[in-house]
Amino acid sequence: MSKFSSFVCLFSLVMSIFSISTTSAHADSAPVLEPISDVTVIGHRGASGYAPEHTLESYKKAIRLNADYVEFDLQMTKDRELVALHDTTLDRTTNIEEVYPERAPWAVRDFTLEEIKNLDAGSWFNETHPEYAKNKYEGLEVPTLQEALDVAKHYGKGDVGVYIETKAPDVYPGMEEKLVHTLQDNHMFEQGDVILQSFSADSLKKLNTMVPNDVPLIQLAGSVPEDESELHDKFDEISTYADGLGPNQKLVTPTFMEAAHSRGLIVHPYTVNKKENMKNLLDLGVDGMFTNFPDQLHDLLKTSQKENHRK
To answer: Which active-site residues does the annotation give?
Structure first.
């Protein structure tokens, strides 16, 4: 069974009791998952608080630390290969300035996969986070989407889902088709452990026509209307093509949660790294969280679950 949030099951029951309908394009057949609680733990760029983001080591670390899903951000190379990388440029998380000093601004789309594979995507982390530095991080490669999926399938033994973002899809025409074909080739849709997200509504609308109905689509949001009426209108629109929201954690309020849940939209805020913030968001009723430290959220949920059993 897939690993979405068991909240979906409970929420669907409540919605049916009160005869509240939803216009979400996918919500009627969203998968029911069984994490340790009603909240989904999402490893943000892997376990990027402990290991270099978007490396196979970071993904493996997230799996070991009990993430329900591991997040992959996607970029596309000059030769149209999908790679897992957050930025549209390579200078922040690799040594590209040393390897190709004359090719600034070092956009991913200007380099072939072979050229990108020559880069060191791990040493920067050791320099930036000496408290978590490890020799094995030196020389790590930027992974392809296929390599990232292989980790989820084999290292995760089928117990972890993948949460994939189409980054800057306007920069990479055909990104959605390439992504869907790769997921199909790996039989990921049959396994039911895929969630797709984007800041681009157009990208999500495109994916909405390409993927099975039980694949959740999440609209990321760095801002939302302050006016409550406009907020409701915005969520009405989103619910026509997506199943949930991935807001900046600062946007999550009781009003936000009511507007989202009343439309059948799940809420997965980003990026939550402090336990105090995790607790506050749990009190607000979020359905999952992106975190650089999946073990901390997992442990908090486990403790909360034990306390609830004692009551």
So the answer is: 44, 86
- What kind and span of H or E run contains 107? none
Cβ pair 291, 278 in contact under 8 A: yes
Bridge partners of residue 192, in order along the sequence: none
Residue 252's closest CA among 229, 279, 233, 292? Answer: 279
Q: Tens digit of pLDDT per residue, the chain (311 long)?
A: 444 544 454 444 444 433 334 444 554 443 333 333 489 999 999 999 999 999 999 999 999 999 999 999 999 999 999 999 999 999 999 999 999 999 999 999 999 999 999 999 999 999 999 999 999 999 999 999 999 999 999 998 878 999 999 999 999 999 999 999 999 999 999 987 999 999 999 999 999 999 999 999 999 999 999 999 999 999 999 999 999 999 999 999 999 999 999 999 999 999 999 999 999 999 999 999 999 999 999 999 999 876 665 55
Cis peptide before 105 (omega within 30 of 0): yes
Q: Within 13 A of 141's CA, how many CA atoms are on the CB side? A: 12
Q: What kind and span of H or E run contains 221?
A: strand 217-221
User: Which run of H or of E encompasses 189?
Assistant: helix 188-191
Question: Where exactly are the structural domains of the chain?
Answer: 7-310
Strands 161-166 and 69-76: parallel
Q: Give the E-state strand segments of the chain in sequence order.
A: 40-43, 69-76, 82-84, 161-166, 194-198, 217-221, 244-247, 266-267, 288-291
Which of these CATH numbers, 3.90.800.10, 3.30.43.10, 3.40.50.720, 3.20.20.190, describes 7-310?
3.20.20.190
The answer to whether residues 79 and 112 touch, using CB atoms and an 8 Å cutoff, is yes
Tokens linked to 167: 């980054």
Regarding pTM above 0.70, the answer is yes
CA distances from 40 to 127, 209, 287, 305, 310 (A): 31, 26, 6, 14, 22
